[in-house]
Amino acid sequence: MRRLRADNLLIVLSMAILPLSSEWAFAQSVPGADPNFFSNNPHPAMPWHSPWALSNQGLVLREIEVPSRSVVIPMEVVQPGSLPSTIEWQEVTLPGYRVTEKVNGFTVQGHWEVRPHGSAYYWTWVPTHFRSK
Question: pTM (2 decimals)?
Answer without folding.
Answer: 0.54
